[in-house]
Amino acid sequence: MARQTGDVHGDLPDIPVGLMFADREDLHKSGLHNQTIAGISGTKAEGGAFSIVLNEGYEDDEDRGNEIIYTGEGKGKPEEGQERIPGKKQQGDQDMKSRGNAALQKNVESGLPVRVIRGPNGNLKYSPLQGYRYDGLYDVKEAYIEKGEAGFKMCKFRLERATVPTQDELPLHITGKGANDDYWSIDGREKLGKRRVNNPASSEPSASTSDTASQQAIQEKRREIAGKPRLGNMSFSKKKSVSN
């Protein structure tokens, strides 16, 4: 099955809200998010970002379910020649010039939505327990810069869940660990039943006690039959006819 590029705004065919993904590699293979490491996919030239991954990327992220304050990218490491600030994830100021930040800023202007994927390390109230879950479309309402918790200037984006009539509610009941949670697979995207092949929580139902006893009885009967001579190996004397 050909990989979808994901370089489009909006939902992708055969990837419904609530579908789970085992890891970032599967997200990339499906086309839902084209970056295997970066949290923002898309560029300003393409009308804005296509998708974002929310998975505890920055300490300034705020996840409120239908509203997200998403922190931009940049300065996660010190400038050349500077020592790393101990105990701090952020090492410098951000700006709106980076590829991802410029893309999300463009979404505010273009009005194009982004696909939001939540990972297991985000706000426990809204995130899956394992894997990555597609949570639908969000509109980027604001882009601004303010001082973050580490004391540096941070690019922030306020997202609101899109009011699309056909969009399902936030799938908070899908945690990634439920036996019926559907996981994407490259050979089963069009068949819902096959999406569970990568689900670590799914397993074959255990046989009941009566089923087990029945199987044991069948096996014993087979062994009993196997120990007896077969009709094909037995000789029979021809019965003589009686004359009147």
UniProtKB/TrEMBL annotation:
List the molecular function annotations (GO) for this entry. ubiquitin protein ligase activity
Per its UniProt record, what InterPro entries does this chain match? PUA-like_sf, SRA-YDG_sf, SRA_YDG, UHRF1/2-like
Q: Which GO terms describe its biological process?
A: negative regulation of gene expression via chromosomal CpG island methylation; protein ubiquitination
**One cellular component (GO) term of this entry:** nucleus
Biased composition annotated in UniProt, kind: Low complexity: 206-217
Query: Per the record, which residues fall in region Disordered?
Result: 63-100, 194-244
Q: Does the keyword Electron transport apply?
A: no
UniProt biased composition (Basic and acidic residues): 74-98
Q: Where in the cell is it found?
A: Nucleus
Could you say which residues form the signal peptide? none
Keywords recorded for this protein, A-Z? Nucleus
Q: Domain of life of the organism in this record?
A: Eukaryota
Which residue numbers delimit the YDG domain?
10-161
How is this protein named in the record?
Answer: PUA-like domain-containing protein
What is the organism of origin for this protein? Favolaschia claudopus
